[in-house]
Amino acid sequence: MEEVRRRLEEDFIVYDVEELEDGVRFYIHPKREMSDDLKRYLTSLMGEYSVQMRNRYGELVLEIRRHKKERVWINLALFVATVCSTTLMGSVMFGSLLRGLTFSMAVMFVLGSHEMGHYFAARRWRMRTSLPYFIPFPTIIGTLGAIIKHKGPIPNRRALFDVGVSGPLVGVLASVIAIAIGFKVPMLPGRLSGPVIVLGTPPLFDAVAKLMNYNEKLIGPIAFAGWVGLFVTFLNLIPVGQLDGGHVLRAMIGKKADFVSKMIPPALIAVGMLVSYLYDVPDSIWMFWGLITIFFAMMPHPDPIDDETPLDAKRMALGILTFVVAALCFTPVPFRVVT
Q1: DSSP secondary structure of 12-57
Q2: 59-95 residue pLDDT tens
Q3: Model's pTM, two decimal places?
Q4: Are 338 and 196 in contact (CB under 8 A)?
Q5: Is 130 helix (H, G, I), strand (E, B) or coil?
Q6: Measuring CA to CA, how many Å separate 145 from each of 106, 108, 112, 171, 268?
Q7: What does the alpha-carbon distance between residue 122 and residue 227 come to, in Å, rounded to a whole number?
Q8: How do strand 49-56 and strand 59-66 relate by DSSP bridges?
Q9: Closest by CA position to 65, among listed 9, 25, 18
């Protein structure tokens, strides 16, 4: 830690050092604004250590701690539980255990691809992040999706952009693959039972169907998993709070994204009211999602360490393309249940 202290003393007065069980705590007082060189140096430590600057009892401290070992068994247990829940709900929906298992494998591939896109982008920037936590839940698809936990600060806006954009784009690619395979694979044995779910298909789904010359009224479990992936992609790319779309927009336009984030919930509620009127849907999902996003909008987005360096032109173009992809995943009425 002598090297760390030497680098700190270029911009701070280090007046005390406390040894911790898993690292060290520097008590510091700024001599000037932290230099970009020091920011880059501290960022380079984040792959091996947790680096956090904070106020502790009125004193400014920099803590450098060894990362705690991940409890991978939790990720594995949740993965197995989600396979079971998606298989169960798929079996109920499609009328056989074989179809249910097929749906489970396809939807886990789609959702897992999304999260692993985030994971590998974060690791590329040496950001500390967990493996995906899948969330089993008895919804229509048997899961609430998956999340990964980021730990520590965000190095810069490019890292924020890369991590935010990678999940949705990889997830869309996985969804398109699932849809295309689903259109080619014959329906597995089983009998459909219970209420019929009428899906609203987004433009991207319709484009794949047209390319594959698919004109049937029914779709199988694999294609449905692809539809789920497109729906989840649109929800995640809504530019609010710390959703993927919020990360991407924050990286693109900086702190102006906070204003956009606050405008999204009323805009979604308005869209929901318009959809209810035009499509005769009494309880549009977009009104409900507008209320949900109020909580996302209330949570301030963490600032990257380097919040001054703007994105390059290629990332800006990719960001615009990403929101175009999100629009192609939107459908006014995602589904209706017909009994």
Answers
A1: EEEEEEEEETTEEEEEEEESSSPPHHHHHHHHHTTTTEEEEEEEET
A2: 999 988 887 777 889 999 999 999 999 999 999 888 8
A3: 0.84
A4: yes
A5: coil
A6: 13, 9, 9, 12, 21
A7: 27
A8: antiparallel
A9: 25
